[in-house]
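Task: complex structure prediction.
Instruction: return structure tokens for all chains below.
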Amino acid sequence: MSTPVCIGFIPLVDAAALILAVDKGFTAAEGLDVTLVREVSWSNVRDKLNIGLFDAAHLLAPVAIASSLGLGHVKVAIAAPFNLGLNGNAITVSPALHAALLAEIDGDRFDPMATALALARVVAKRRKSGAEPLTFAMTFPFSTHNYQLRFWMAAGGVNPDEDVRLVVLPPPYMVESLASGHVDGFCVGAPWNSVAVDLGVGHILHFVSDILVRAAEKVLAVRQNWSEKNPEVVAALLRAAFRAAEFIEEPQNRAEAAHILAQPERIGVGADIIQRTLDGRLKISPDGTTRESSRYLLLGREGAARPDPVQAAWLYAQMIRWGQTSWSPVALKTAMAVFRPDLYDAAIGRDGNDSGVRGTIGAFAGPAFDSNDIAGHLAAFKIGRHNP
Amino acid sequence: MPAESSPKIVIVDESPVRAAILEAGLREAGFTGVSHIGEMQNLLARIYELDPDVILIDLENPSRDVLEQMFQVSRAVRRPIAMFVDQSDAASIQASVDAGVSAYIVDGLKKERIKPILDLCISRFNAFSKLQDELERAKSALEDRKVIDRAKGILMKLKGLTEDEAYVLLRSTAMREKKKIAEIAHSILTASQLLK
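Output:
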């Protein structure tokens, strides 16, 4: 008899391992009868997971931490035993802002420090001429997109809370808002950056892997008490997701994976766009320029699926930096305990390929991150709400 | 309820019918300051303009995430906003999620004033989805009747039956095969298409 499991997801490419685990029959082979529910907002996914309508969910890593800390909503302890994706976001800007940045840039256009300094000059010029501040969109207050965008612009001297407008937009509305001029740029996951480029309304300025070498993006989240009551189900789910991630990472399987993910009830965009995302070979300009990166989106390779508590600590530090919470040693411990490599290891085993990459954040600016010294990390940054 | 103490309520809903049902219910209950936003462009600016105490939004609306931004303290926000529930109110969240509605309440509005608004919204949302179910059923009943009429016509023509005899034949076949009359009628229509 198979165990029913209800899982919520948002139609984004980093739900791939979860979707493939079900659609390739890996969950069924583990004795699970999984129902995938496509959702329209992160708030819905969070609420339905928290109150038990979902057993598990494709979730923004920072939301799992925020729920466990009781930030923004009810406090429910969440466990994240599996990374569904590392990196995978990109910053896309309008053709007008892209031209303005390139006119100001001093250095390589893929160097985030060079673009951030160029942004600071564009912002200063606009202020002088009395123009409206630039507007950037991201997907959720507790999102890597929010922190990546802020980290990048602040490194160039742009205060994200004062010098520009930062707004939340649901991913499906991003492209339209860029085209209509409501926003000048955004940070979002796949496929939306590519959709903007294909429609000729945006240029991909950065892969977020330019900003952070390794960032936990989406997790497979479960309620902690549910995972305690259902350890076998959790383990079965992790094994199926791991098998799916391995399947996707084999280049010869990518076309099949992209085809499955493109189905309207799954992600619902063209298979070609999804395949470009999986391959890390993106068209970055409407003129057809492409850029390739082996770090664009990691779905399982290089130990990407194994949760790393240092990543959770980094996300918690960003929440402090941007005024979403205040520093406490207890909260840090809680945040780090959300990421559960122990559950991952119990289900899948240590495959040994993650040695040497644990604890790597690899930000382009500031000192190397040390989860034992959050205060020191924050003190290194001038801009932020942690410095009143 | 005197008008000056009635909280300002904004309904964010792309369905004009459901918004109207909700609005009417709230007004009947004495909440006079009710407005509706049906257009999602620049949602936050529209909300700040109306400066509501309570915001109601359906769960099928992706713009819920936009409202979450109001929890964040930023220079654009005039007042902090919290969801209606506190930690002890899991049952209220459950009821509202089940009904498909979410409420955001500006801090400072007393809890006892929020409860009746929310209860009313949940019951109206439930009433709306029941209404939709009934509409769907009525629509499919109408469809069924059309199909049955056409199947009767085919039987009358091919077998020289009266309308009543054609209907009796449909019904007895349905009973024998443990199917709905509409299903048998559908089969007859499909078969006659094939044999044309």
